[in-house]
Amino acid sequence: MDQGTQKVEKKRFLEPVVALKFDSNQMVQEAAGYSVAPSASPFLHRLPLLPFLHLSQTTEPELCYSGRIVWMSILLTDFFQVGLWIDAGSRYENERNNGTAHFLEHMAFKGTRKRSQLDLELEIENMGAHLNAYTSREQTVYYAKAFSKDLPRAVEILADIIQNSTLGEAEIERERGVILREMQEVETNLQEVVFDYLHATAYQSTALGRTILGPTENIKTINRGDLVEYITTHYKGPRIVLAAAGGVCHEELIDLAKYHFGKLPNRYQGEAPVLPPCHFTGSEIRVRDDKMPLAHIAIAVEAVGWSHPDTIPLMVANTLIGNWDRSFGGGVNLSSKLAQMACQGNLCHSFQSFNTCYTDTGLWGLYMVCEPGTINDMMHFTQMEWMSLCTSVTESEVARAKNLLKTNMLLHLDGSTPICEDIGRQMLCYSRRIPLHELEARIDAIDANTIKDVCTKYIYNRAPAIAAVGPIEQLPDYNQIRSGMFWMRT
């Protein structure tokens, strides 16, 4: 590759990302988009030092006493998204306060010391903006979408709701009923129910096994003191990322961050909260209901966390299995062998492979929706394809999966909203945003032998976790499924 070609590659893939560290005493701006210390990055596993990666030694950010701000420029747009990504979720809870993070997310929009709930709603509506939040097992996110001219107001509102929420007793009681009704709605979404069961059995007796909403008993008893304690413990500068994408001015965002977030507390009264350890247990949960028309089943093995070097090979393996439902065309021409079998044999209504990552662990598996009489066959062919990944996947299949994975990654980043989400998540997971050209290089470095080695490590002869709901009489016994996780046991 000559010098001119290298310049073209940079223009295609490099994106302007700037990170800003901030604390109450000093503001330091630093470029953090394109360089990484090779010795500190676990993602360099099996990757040759290609010249266009420009890997160089950099100073590790002092995350103990600083927050992080990230900005990305997307030209020719009058809109933007800005959000706060907080390193706090249901995994940081215990049995007593499980559900507090999600409850707090609901309370954020119920009024602050500067704005009543009505004032906040009217201000957002008059701006033509959108304000929302969500909670996951490891993160809580508050974000706003608005016109570029309203960036100062959007940032100020986000700062206000996480620093000045009143958490009134009347609002808490009213929101308690809202969350209980939300739980009833979630229970009608069988995919969410199955994945909650999957976490409960895979990570039983650990924090990841708990639901995000929490049990009904906790929702009925969570009080203002619990919410204040959670904010005091987790809403600290080092745990918060402010990310923006779209039509925003870099200098303006930095000034707004200094003004609104410069006084965020960055020290803990006691010890800083840490992720409780979680262990995977091969096991199952079965909830049989023969009145239901379809069976919903998830099977998974333990995978790896975000920063583990085997993450990307498992992403390629996940793409090899793929997904399918009856609305797809293609038939025998589908790239996924399992999809071909499902289509030709009418084995299921749909299936989707998944690779769910957390900080230090993950779940790699498949979710299927089947008629009662096809469960056994669908499970058999699923495990057969898993064993093929471990023993006989070909270079052409891997090349096709790598191209599809890269395409899906690029198609996902189709606007300011998904780009802002990607930046915030990556900054919490990696403390930097991995540029697309680097991700492409890591994907390209994978071959069939890599897939075989990694899949053998995590899938072959491993005890799976299984969650099943519905008419599941034909679901094989756990020991039979376990025996399908190897072909030639030695």
Describe this structure in words.
The chain is of the alpha+beta class. The chain has helices spanning 3-13, 100-107, 117-127, 151-163, 169-186, 190-202, 216-221, 224-234, 250-261, 311-321, 337-345, 375-391, 395-412, 416-430, 436-444, 448-458, 478-483; strands spanning 17-22, 27-31, 67-73, 79-86, 130-135, 140-147, 240-246, 284-288, 295-302, 323-325, 350-357, 362-370, 465-470. The chain has two domains: 62-261, Metalloenzyme, LuxS/M16 peptidase-like (Cytochrome Bc1 Complex, Chain A, domain 1), CATH 3.30.830; 284-483, Cytochrome Bc1 Complex, Chain A, domain 1, CATH 3.30.830.10. Helix content is 41%, strand content 18%. Strand 1 (17-22) and strand 2 form a beta hairpin. The longest helix has 18 residues, at 169-186. The chain is globular, with a radius of gyration of 24 Å. Residues 1-66 have low confidence and may be disordered.
Produce the secondary structure layout.
Layout (H helix, E strand, L loop, with lengths): L2 H11 L3 E6 L4 E5 L35 E7 L5 E8 L13 H8 L9 H11 L2 E6 L4 E8 L3 H13 L5 H18 L3 H13 L13 H6 L2 H11 L5 E7 L3 H12 L22 E5 L6 E8 L8 H11 L1 E3 L11 H9 L4 E8 L4 E9 L4 H17 L3 H18 L3 H15 L5 H9 L3 H11 L6 E6 L7 H6 L7
Parallel strand pairs: 3-7, 8-13
Antiparallel strand pairs: 1-2, 1-3, 4-6, 4-7, 5-6, 9-12, 9-13, 10-11, 11-12
Helix pairs in contact: 4-9, 10-13, 10-16, 11-12, 12-16, 13-15
GO cellular component, one term: mitochondrial matrix
Protein name: Mitochondrial-processing peptidase subunit beta
EC number: 3.4.24.64
